[in-house]
Design goal:
The chain has 15 helices and 21 strands. By secondary structure, it is α/β, with parallel strands linked by helices. The chain has four domains: about 5-175, Alpha-D-Glucose-1,6-Bisphosphate, subunit A, domain 3 (Alpha-D-Glucose-1,6-Bisphosphate, Chain A, domain 3); about 180-190 and about 195-290, Alpha-D-Glucose-1,6-Bisphosphate, subunit A, domain 3 (Alpha-D-Glucose-1,6-Bisphosphate, Chain A, domain 3, 3-Layer(aba) Sandwich), CATH 3.40.120.10; about 295-415, 3-Layer(aba) Sandwich (Alpha-D-Glucose-1,6-Bisphosphate, Chain A, domain 3); about 415-520, Alpha-D-phosphohexomutase, C-terminal domain (TATA-Binding Protein, 2-Layer Sandwich). The strands form four sheets. Strands 1-5-4-2-3-6 form a six-stranded mixed sheet, sandwiched between helices. Helix 2 crosses helix 3. This is Phosphomannomutase.
Length: about 525
């Protein structure tokens, strides 16, 4: 480390929660994740639980994904919690577990919450600490701040005395996995596409927690030709055989495409390492069409509204930076979309708030994350995979369409052509937060009423969404925010128009102009 890196690594400011828990690099220092900072975080979390449930015997699930040192760090957290008299539930043999299964387990067993050692799809150098409450959803910002306040100061973390009590550890039976997958099976709508389930489907688990489980689950559903990308379906915290464990990045698909070409397959599906995010690509005109989180949200909405029977007004939960085409769709059925800040902790909380007062359709965000039933409160790649394949075969059997035409020919013809996209700029500088803040200020005080060919009707700070809104003519908008988990600045596009090809060109023109404005 050079002097600047040392200063950053040993800054005494507490680690803070982003949109999906605490994430940081693993390594020495008070700003990185290691044995001592995990003790610090776990102690703050444990003291928070003791204050929240003063007269109860607290039960907390501790879990981890495939990342390096996950077992060790989960044991560190377990030691801290049991030293405080908190019961800890571990999965059998402290095996790695997918995030959505933990969310389900909380609700099934009635535990007070969970702590998961995960950094989802971040680079291999990272790890994290993700916290759930008794609803199965991520804890909200208010509680995150309370945990941080209760953490011991960074300059004392080497001297923390921990007296673990292994008698407070209980192991969760493997039967929970069967119960979870049975619960998913029961929320699927149509099982009338049996004859088509022999199509070749390439699957990659990105070295993560779904690598073995998803093929087994899909086989139980009747899919007979799931072809795993063998190299990427081995648990590996180094992510050896992928250029990126994030399915949002095109390089994550390179090996899957080689498999698809070799096996002459037309569909590829992927789950990210902690299995909360699902993505699909379909071969179209000798090329690959990758579906975004917005597009999948639109497809889920259309399919559910058309095929599910509702006895109460239907509702959707999504973030402010996600597509608003679903608003048009659900209004036709007398329902509404509830908007939240970015991140599934806010989305899951809103789902819990509405609960069964209205009929649930889907909860989703633009970053390929969706919840397709009420059995959990976080995004769920297993549910999304099962429902997406159901829709894929439904479109093929009953509409004689692939998924691309189902979206662009059937859905857009009824509700309007829309172009949604997200562009992320990564900062390599250590002071990236300051750089991002300056750009946000520039956007908030932008003086022109025009961007490319679009008229800007209003610019405002969206307090709930945590983003800057540029409202454009024709029900379109641009939104800007900084990432809560990574050093990234993001631009979100929501453009309506007559033709998709023109909308894509218009988005490119806007992007070019924004790069000039922001010096990106």
């Amino acid at each position: 480390m050079d002097a600047n890196e040392l200063k950053t690594a040993f800054d005494l400011a507490p680690l803070v929660f982003g949109t999906a828990g605490i994430r940081s690099k693993m390594g020495p220092g008070t700003q990185y994740l290691n044995e001592f900072t995990y003790r610090q975080i776990a102690l703050g979390y444990g003291l928070f639980l003791k204050k929240k449930y003063p007269a109860q015997q607290i039960n907390i699930i501790v879990a981890h994904d495939n990342r390096n040192h996950g077992v060790f760090f989960s044991n560190v957290v377990t030691d801290v919690l049991t030293s405080l008299g908190i019961n800890v539930l571990l999965y059998d043999n402290n095996q790695l577990v997918a995030t959505p299964i933990v969310s389900y387990t909380i609700r099934k067993l009635g535990s007070h919450g969970a702590a998961i050692i995960t950094a989802s799809h971040n680079p291999k150098t990272d790890n994290g600490f993700k916290v759930y409450d008794s609803t199965g959803g991520q804890i909200l910002t208010e509680d995150c701040l309370k945990i941080v306040e209760l953490m011991p100061p960074a300059d004392l973390i080497l001297d923390l005395e921990i007296n673990a009590n292994n008698a407070l550890i209980t192991f969760i039976s493997d039967a929970i996995f069967d119960e979870y997958f049975k619960a998913i099976s029961q929320v699927l709508i149509n099982t009338d596409c049996q004859l088509l389930k022999h199509d070749k489907i390439i699957f990659s688990g990105q070295h993560g927690t779904a690598s073995k489980l998803l093929p087994q689950f899909l086989k139980r559903l009747g899919y007979t030709n799931i072809i795993p990308v063998v190299e990427q379906c081995e648990y590996d915290g180094d992510f050896t055989h992928t250029k990126s464990p994030n399915p949002e990045n095109l390089v994550a698909w390179e090996l899957s495409i080689k498999y698809a070409n070799f096996h002459n397959a037309n569909v590829i599906i992927q789950l990210d390492p902690d299995a909360d995010r699902f993505a699909i690509a379909v071969r179209k005109n000798h090329d690959w069409r990758f579906f975004t989180g917005n597009e999948m949200g639109i497809i889920y909405t259309y399919y559910m509204l058309k095929t599910k029977k509702f006895t109460k007004p239907p509702f959707i939960v999504s973030s402010y930076v996600s597509t608003n085409l679903v608003d048009r769709m659900i209004q036709k059925y007398g329902g509404q979309v509830y908007r939240t800040a970015t991140g599934f902790k806010s989305i899951g909380a809103k789902v819990t708030e509405i609960g069964e007062r209205e009929d649930f359709v889907v909860a989703f965000e633009e970053a390929i994350g969706a919840l397709n039933s009420l059995i959990g409160r976080d995004k769920d790649g297993f549910q999304a995979a099962a429902l997406t394949l159901e829709i894929y075969y439904h479109a093929k059997q009953f509409h004689h369409m692939d998924l691309v035409d189902f979206l662009e020919t059937l859905i857009y013809a009824e509700f309007g052509n829309i172009y949604n996209d997200t562009i992320a700029f990564t900062f390599k500088e250590l002071n990236w937060k300051d750089l991002a803040k300056k750009r946000m200020e520039k956007l908030l005080h932008y003086s022109s009423n025009q961007i490319a060919s679009r008229k800007i009707t209003r610019i405002e700070w969206n307090e709930v969404g945590g983003c800057i809104d540029w409202l454009l003519d024709g029900d379109s908008w641009l939104r800007f925010r900084t990432s809560g988990t990574e050093p990234k600045f993001k631009i979100y596009f929501n453009l309506y128009g007559d033709q998709l090809i023109k909308l894509k060109q218009e988005a490119m023109d806007i992007e070019k102009e924004l790069k000039t404005i922001l010096d990106l």
